[in-house]
Amino acid sequence: MPNDARVAHYFGAAPPAGRDPHRQFIAVHALDIPARGVPADTTPAVLGFTAAGHTLGAPC
Questions:
Q1: What is the pLDDT along the chain (60 residues), one digit of tens a residue?
Q2: Entry's SUPFAM superfamilies (predicted)?
């Protein structure tokens, strides 16, 4: 699955050199359906939009 930059590898934030350590957060969402059925090349933004109507629980 590509990321929002349309590449299939990590393309994350890069804090400026000499700054404090960078932290990552992972969010897990519970859906009311077993699978979304989206193509493998769908971006995380599109997946999040299509899953929004099926979310049972998500981080606050």
A1: 667 677 777 766 667 778 777 777 777 888 888 876 778 788 888 888 888 888 887 666
A2: PEBP-like
Distance between CA 33 and CA 54 in Å, rounded? Answer: 7
Spatial separation of the C-alpha atoms in residues 60 and 41, rounded to whole Å: 28
Buried b (16+ CB within 10 A) or exposed e, 10-49: eeeeeeeeeeeeeeeeeeeeeeeeeeeeeeeeeeeeeeee
What predicted TM-score, i.e. pTM, was given to this entire model? 0.50
**Nearest by Cα to 54 from 34, 38, 33:** 33
Rounded (10°) CA dihedral 4, 8, 13, 21: 150
Place of tokens 């859906």: 31
